[in-house]
Design brief:
It contains eight helices and seven strands; from the N terminus they run βαβαβααββαββααα. It has 233 residues and is of the alpha/beta class. It has two domains: 129 residues, Resolvase, N-terminal catalytic domain (Rossmann fold); 84 residues, no CATH class. Strand 1, helix 1 and strand 2 form a beta-alpha-beta unit. Helix 2 packs parallel to helix 4.
């Protein structure tokens, strides 16, 4: 008979009747296990704890460990009892799957031991990954835009080429006339069809240093990327 591990979580709300107790959740999870032919090997719970974090919930960590140890199905009443959002639930599922365990949620009718359940979780994981990449892309674009327009992102970051700290405001950058002239030269080379590596070689040959060092194609590429962001902003 396949093993199952039950997990329940209760967090108090202004109207306590809006959230089932751990006893009710556990009872429903046990009934689900009986209906699916699972032997309940262990049951864990967390009381009066928010789902915002997983690492501070001893009951959840014990449930994950037990499920992995027995290669069991971790059964919860609903995903919001397991984690704050779908992305966090997927991260917990990843922990389980690495140990040969699975996850089942009664309310959402999901069970990764079934083909359709696994497909739905993979679909949710794909959407979560897309969301993370979109956030990263927006953050990266915003940072490049701010840097191209003279905003210093932190007090300790290295000034992008062509800029230097404003002596009157350490949180802002001002143009460095000499380096801006080099940037214009780089862009001129680029307009002639020269790639980053030939541009770097041309600058070295002309005796122009990159802040005391030889030029690398990665530095030229970054300068061109920032210049493009500035002109399209």
């Amino acid at each position: 008979m396949p093993h199952a591990v039950v997990y329940a979580r209760f967090s108090p709300r202004p109207r306590a009747e809006d959230c089932d107790s751990v006893e009710k959740q556990t009872e429903r999870c046990r009934a689900y296990c009986a209906g699916h032919g699972y032997h309940v090997a262990a049951a864990f719970h967390d009381k009066d704890l928010s789902g915002g974090r997983a690492d501070n919930r001893a009951g959840l960590q014990d449930a994950i460990a037990a499920a992995r140890s027995k290669k069991a199905v971790l059964v919860v009443y609903s995903l919001d009892r397991l984690a704050r959002n779908t992305r966090d639930a997927i991260e917990i599922l990843d922990q389980l799957r690495r140990g040969g365990a699975d996850l089942a949620s009664i309310t959402e009718s999901l069970n990764t031991r079934s083909a359709i359940g696994q497909f739905l979780f993979e679909l949710l994981a794909a959407f979560a990954q897309l969301q993370r990449r979109q956030i990263q892309e927006r953050t990266s674009n915003a940072m490049r835009h701010h840097q191209a327009n003279g905003r210093r992102m932190t007090r300790t970051d290295c000034c992008p080429y062509g800029w230097r700290p404003d002596p009157l405001d350490a949180g802002r950058l001002v143009e460095d006339a000499d380096e801006q002239a080099v940037i214009e030269r780089i862009r001129a080379y680029h307009r002639r069809g020269m790639g980053p590596r030939p541009v770097a070689r041309a600058l070295d040959a002309a005796g122009i240093r990159c802040r005391g060092h030889r030029w690398h194609d990665s530095a030229v590429r970054s300068i061109l990327r920032r210049a493009e962001a500035s002109t399209t902003a």
